[in-house]
């Protein structure tokens, strides 16, 4: 089969390698598309080190072609979305249900070979069945959508409440839609105005930029917008998806006293968050790490049409042009870039 093999930072080569064979409990998936995200970019650029050679790609979907002994949840021909993280199943975190926090967690496309290839070998238990008539372009967003579904769940979003979403990348634009589907009115906040119209088209009731932000000063556009939308001191729930140090600080500014702030973007830099406001406003700061059992709900939201992805999937590249896919990921026009093996 053809696979894009990463041999070192920036060194990805499309090669012909032997196709995988399913062992006990495993499934072979014919990859129909694999999304590319910031994590892939950091691995490709060498910012994040992995074991080489590696077939990257963790946002993959496709159809099962064969299964090994003992597999009962999927059969050949089944369309699936792959949950690209699985845990050891034996440690205290796994046993108490916190498998997403397992320190021996395995990430497909990072720790083991992933979806930038014609076929992928996976534990069958990470293959979630999807309706045969659900379009690939929709299903491809299942993985980031599962991240968002968990964040919204952790934030205990209630119909009738107001929410702010920070960041209008893939996660942010999905969060706007999930919160709206749950009956919240949503303010979308971004650093620039570039994608705010898209956030409106995805259902945001209001949009704002973080321009002029200063902790406690109340002078920023987004703080005013949060007050205007909620008709009070701030929104009930903030979902932070940008994963930058500034966005974390900004998230705390937008919540009303007694409100909740869910952080699901992974900030790689330390933040100078002013914890005075966390105490003074008695905020609940909630981390949300990938997903636990959210894939079925993500697939349901896509199948029902509650979450639309057409305008999120901006670029598609064949496997041979994967180098261009990494470049496209960094372009300001791209939201979700897909590789089609
Ligand atoms: Zn990703
Ligand atoms: Zn574990």
Task: Write structural notes for this entry.
The chain has 341 residues and is an alpha/beta fold. It has 11 helices and 17 strands. It has 2 domains: 171 residues, Alpha-Beta Complex (Quinone Oxidoreductase, Chain A, domain 1), CATH 3.90.180.10; 143 residues, NAD(P)-binding Rossmann-like Domain (Rossmann fold, 3-Layer(aba) Sandwich). It starts with a strand and ends with a strand. It binds zinc ion (ZN) (2 copies). One zinc ion binds next to loops. The site of one zinc ion has 8 residues, from α2.
CATH topology of the largest domain, by name, is: Quinone Oxidoreductase, Chain A, domain 1
Oligomer: single chain
CATH superfamily of the largest domain: Medium-chain alcohol dehydrogenases, catalytic domain
Q: What is the count of helical runs?
A: 11
Provide the CATH top-level class of the largest domain.
Alpha Beta
Task: Quote the average pLDDT.
Answer: 95
Give the structural class.
alpha/beta
Radius of gyration based on Cα positions? 20 Å
> What is the N-to-C order of secondary-structure elements (H for helix, E for strand)?
EEEHEEEHEEEHHEHEHEHEHEHEHEHE
User: What overall form do the CA principal axes indicate?
Assistant: globular
Which residues sit in consecutive blocks of at least 5 with pLDDT less than 50? 213-219
Describe the sheet with the most strands: 7 strands, mixed
Give every kind of bound small molecule, once each. zinc ion
Counted up, domains total 2
Terminal-residue CA separation: 10 Å
Strand content: 25-35%
Per CATH, which architecture of the largest domain?
Alpha-Beta Complex
Tell me how many strands there are: 17
Roughly what percent helix? 25-40%
């Amino acid at each position: 089969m053809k696979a894009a093999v990463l041999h070192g930072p920036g060194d990805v080569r499309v090669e012909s390698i032997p196709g995988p064979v399913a062992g006990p409990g495993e499934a072979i998936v014919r990859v129909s598309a694999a999304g590319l995200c910031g994590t892939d970019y950091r691995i490709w650029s060498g910012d994040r080190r992995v074991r080489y050679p590696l077939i990257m790609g963790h946002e993959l979907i496709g159809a099962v072609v064969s299964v090994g002994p003992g597999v009962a949840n999927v059969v050949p021909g089944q369309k699936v979305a792959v949950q690209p993280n699985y845990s050891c199943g034996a440690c205290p975190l796994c046993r108490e249900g916190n498998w997403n926090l397992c320190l021996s967690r395995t990430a497909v496309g990072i720790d083991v070979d992933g979806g930038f290839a014609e076929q992928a070998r996976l534990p069958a238990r990470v293959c979630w069945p999807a309706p045969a008539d659900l379009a690939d372009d929709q299903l491809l967003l299942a993985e980031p959508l599962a991240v968002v579904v968990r964040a919204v769940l952790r934030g205990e979003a209630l119909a009738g409440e107001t929410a702010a979403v920070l960041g209008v990348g893939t996660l942010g634009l999905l969060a706007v839609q999930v919160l709206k589907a749950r009956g919240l009115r949503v303010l979308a906040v971004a650093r620039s105005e570039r994608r705010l119209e898209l956030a409106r088209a995805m259902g945001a009731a209001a949009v704002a930029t973080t321009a002029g932000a200063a902790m406690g000063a109340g002078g920023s556009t987004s703080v005013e917008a949060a007050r205007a939308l909620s008709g009070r001191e701030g929104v009930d729930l903030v979902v932070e998806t940008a994963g930058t140090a500034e966005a974390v600080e900004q998230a705390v500014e937008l919540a009303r006293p007694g409100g909740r702030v869910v952080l699901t973007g992974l900030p790689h830099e330390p933040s100078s968050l002013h914890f005075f406001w966390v105490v003074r406003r008695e905020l609940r700061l909630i981390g949300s790490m990938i997903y636990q059992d959210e894939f079925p709900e993500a697939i349901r939201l896509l199948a029902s049409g509650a979450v639309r992805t057409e305008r999120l999937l901006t670029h598609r590249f064949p496997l041979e042009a994967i180098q261009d896919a990494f470049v496209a990921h960094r372009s300001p026009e791209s939201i979700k870039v897909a590789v089609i093996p």
